[in-house]
Amino acid sequence: MNSQAEQRYPYALPAVFLWIGFLMAISFMEAWLKFRAPGVTITIGLGIGKLVFGALNKVEWVLIIITAANFFFVPQKLTSYRNLIFIGAALMTALETFWGLPALDKIADQIIAGGADNSPSVHIIYVSMEVLKLILLILLGTYLVKKHQKINHAN
């Protein structure tokens, strides 16, 4: 067995699938389910959402750093399939961090204060970015699994 080959993506592979799991559990399940729980008002749900999505964003950055560090030790051209997909997912996260989440937090604060949501397009754009990021992460995870299987079959 070639232990160096087997360890090609020992951190990126689990990090990407953990990222997928967090994204699916929070963005595509918790986000809308919390409003169906008995006693959860719009105000409480929005407060929970701000807290949970802020925490998710921090976890995503940790997973980005872990994945990028692993990729640094398995160099490929910047324009390689692996890197372009990863950069796309990281860019979606950056857009969410510096534009999407602040915009949604502002809207949530307006609603909590008794105002109305005057920017439903922000939410639609944010959800679209989450869907695109999920697709990119599934593609990246599939790539990493195939590389792992290829290495294991070669040994």
Low-confidence regions: 1-6
Instruction: Output the structural class.
Output: mainly alpha
Number of domains: 1
| Alpha plus pi helix count | 5
Mean pLDDT over the full residue set: 92
Distance between the termini: 5 Å
Taken from the alpha-carbon principal axes, the silhouette is elongated
Q: Tell me the helix content.
A: over 70%
Name the beta content range: under 5%
The gyration radius over C-alpha positions equals 18 Å
Q: What is the string of SSEs from the N terminus onward?
A: HHHHH
- Report the biggest beta sheet as strand number plus sense, adding barrel if it closes: none
Protein name: DUF4149 domain-containing protein
Keywords: Membrane, Transmembrane, Transmembrane helix
Organism: Arachidicoccus rhizosphaerae
Lay out the secondary structure.
Blueprint: H1 3-6, H2 12-33, H3 42-72, H4 81-112, H5 120-154
Helix pairs in contact: 2-3, 2-5, 3-4, 4-5
Structure at a glance:
The chain has 5 helices and no strands. The chain is mostly helical and 155 residues long.
Q: Overview of this structure, please?
A:
This is DUF4149 domain-containing protein. Keywords: Membrane, Transmembrane, Transmembrane helix. By secondary structure, the chain is an all-alpha fold. The N terminus is likely disordered. It is elongated and about 60 Å long. It contains five helices and no strands. The longest helix has 35 residues. Helices cover 80% and strands 0% of the residues. It has one domain.
